[in-house]
Write a structure and sequence with these properties.
This protein has 291 residues and is of the alpha/beta class. The protein has nine helices and nine strands. A six-stranded mixed β-sheet has the order 2-3-1-4-5-6, sandwiched between helices. A three-stranded mixed β-sheet has the order 7-8-9. Helix 4 links the parallel strand 5 and strand 6. The longest helix is centred in the C-terminal third of the chain and has 18 residues. The chain is globular. Bound molecules: guanosine-5'-diphosphate and magnesium ion (MG). Magnesium ion (MG) binds next to helix 1.
Length: 291
């Protein structure tokens, strides 16, 4: 019996719904989602395993012009994702203007692999506006398959998989068939905490934070987790902690509830705030944080 396997790499501008789509396709919440820009910092793989195929999806950070070294490293994941793709899945939404990213679209047109363009958030559009949008994108990506979807509301998602299977090469599986992702539990725990930081704090603060899991102890009835929130300026410590520690308490509770749901076990979560001055612009620090 033949077996298909390959890499489907998801790229696109920030906030168009790449992570929402990846989670829908994989059927698990692997990638964190918020309405804020630059939520996704890493390349996260999610596998869909069946008897005769294995699809390895990669979610990537949104494409941006780098401001910090952190951003440069984030964009390396995007470049990497373009190189090893068997299929490129570009996500846009009904609001994005292709004219504004036409240089990138020219690059994508030159790719040798199949490209599928998903126009997301159709729940917020009507039929006639949508037709115009699709016509517009066709001019910029003439070779791509274009499919309007809503990742959030699970509309037309079912058309994606058959298309991909048509294109994927015959290969043995790249990963164990029971493997769901390339990241470990510690990574997902730190990502869940980071998601709550993005939701609870304003402006620059979430972008200045990194989360490290210092201890992850699986006991019979409970998992004990100790994590550090690293801030890049001293003044941000007090902001994270909040008046009488109320803010960090809320952060801890919200994160714990989600971690418990993710690992399906009771969790004891301890959070500490630490200063790591200007970590976003130092190579050695970025390396330590896995960028
Ligand atoms: P990413 O930055 O491309 O990974 O985008 P996210 O997946 O983090 O989503 C960004 C925002 O768009 C979040 O607030 C999502 O809930 C929202 N979103 C994603 N898909 C849809 C959709 O189909 N319809 C609507 N209305 N919102 C969506
Ligand atoms: Mg994302």
């Amino acid at each position: 019996m033949s077996h298909k396997s390959g890499f489907v790499n998801i790229i696109g501008s920030p906030n168009v719904g790449k992570s929402t789509l990846m989670n829908q396709l994989v059927g698990e919440k692997l990638s964190i989602i918020t309405s804020k820009m630059q939520t996704t910092r890493h390349r996260i793989m999610g596998m869909v395993n069946e008897k005769d195929y294995q699809i390895v999806f990669s979610d990537t950070p949104g494409i941006i012009a780098p401001g910090y070294k952190l951003h440069e490293n984030m964009m390396k994941y995007v470049a990497e994702a373009l190189k090893d793709a068997d299929v490129v899945m570009m996500v846009t939404d009904i609001y994005e203007d292709p004219e504004k990213i036409k240089d990138r679209l020219t690059q994508i047109n030159q790719l040798k692999v199949p490209v599928i363009l998903l126009v997301n958030k159709i729940d917020q559009s009507d039929q006639s506006a949508l037709e115009l949008t699709i016509e517009k994108w066709k001019k910029y990506l003439p070779k791509a398959q274009i499919l309007p979807i809503s990742a959030l509301h699970n509309m037309s998602i079912e058309f994606i998989l058959p298309k991909l299977l048509e294109w994927l090469p015959e290969n043995p599986p790249y990963f164990d068939k029971d493997q769901l992702t390339n990241k470990n539990m510690r990574f997902f725990v730190s990502e869940i905490i980071r998601e709550k930081i993005l939701i609870l704090y304003q402006k620059e603060v979430p972008y200045s934070c990194e989360v490290t899991v210092e201890e992850y102890k699986d006991e019979e009835k409970i998992t004990k987790i100790r994590a550090n929130i690293m801030v890049s300026r001293n003044s941000q410590k007090a902001i994270i902690i909040g008046h009488q520690g109320k803010k960090i308490k809320k952060l801890g509770t919200d994160a714990r509830i989600d971690i418990e749901a993710f690992i399906m076990k009771k969790v004891h979560l301890e959070l500490y705030v630490k200063l790591d001055k200007d970590w976003r612009d130092k190579d050695q620090k970025l390396k330590r944080y896995g960028y």
